[in-house]
Amino acid sequence: MEQSRSRRRVRGFSLIELLVTIAIIILILAIAVPQMQNASRSYQMRSIVVSVTGAIQSTRYQAISNGIPYRVALSQANTNYQVWSNPCGTAAPCWGKIGGTVPLSGSSLTPALSADTTLDFHPSGLVQASTGALTFNLTFRGLTETIAISNYGNITVTP
């Protein structure tokens, strides 16, 4: 009798116990995986928005600190932006590119821009849209963020 008790203790899991454990794991994964995908998509969208708003803010600061007009041209077709400066000032425009084009996201992610937008930044801090508007949308994997820039550079992002 003592020998049969020790054999029961050594015995492994039953098939039912294993199936219940596997079912619980599958249920947890079914809940967790979509949540992780949504979080990842949200973080990627936030990265894109930070890239675009950072370019806008830094270009405005360049215009103020250097005392000459600057411009950011956002391309809908190419999903990138280009920064320009006008060292001749407002009297005689002579826009020149600064660096190369930069992808909106800074990585292989491809967001959609609602329209071509060109923002002009004056040394006084004034911001004007010479193409498009001061408000545009970025869309990425079903998420859309609206970026609105005030005439004096305040940026508001709304989902």
Report on this structure.
It contains 2 helices and 9 strands. A hairpin with a 5-residue loop joins strand 5 and strand 6. The chain has one domain: 3-Layer(bab) Sandwich (minor pseudopilin epsh fold), CATH 3.55.40. The longest helix has 52 residues. It is α+β, with helices and mostly antiparallel strands and 159 residues long. It is rod-shaped. The strands form 2 sheets. Strands 3-2-1-5-6 form a 5-stranded antiparallel β-sheet. The chain has a 4-stranded antiparallel β-sheet with strand order 4-7-8-9, with helices on one face.
TL;DR of this structure?
By secondary structure, the chain is an alpha+beta fold.
Helix and strand arrangement:
Elements: H1 2-10, H2 15-66, E1 70-75, E2 80-85, E3 96-103, E4 112-113, E5 117-121, E6 127-131, E7 135-140, E8 143-149, E9 155-158
Antiparallel strand pairs: 1-2, 1-5, 2-3, 4-7, 5-6, 7-8, 8-9
What low-confidence regions span 5 or more consecutive residues with pLDDT below 50?
none
Q: Number of folding domains?
A: 1
Q: Percent range for helical residues?
A: 25-40%
Strand content: 25-35%
Number of helices: 2
Overall form:
rod-shaped
Q: List the helices and strands in order.
A: HHEEEEEEEEE
Average pLDDT over all residues: 87
What is the CATH C level class, in words? Alpha Beta
Number of strands: 9
Known CATH architecture: 3-Layer(bab) Sandwich
Global Rg: 27 Å
C-alpha end-to-end distance: 70 Å
Strand order in the sheet with the most strands: 3-2-1-5-6
Tell me about the largest β-sheet: 5 strands, antiparallel
Structural class: alpha+beta
What is the CATH topology?
minor pseudopilin epsh fold
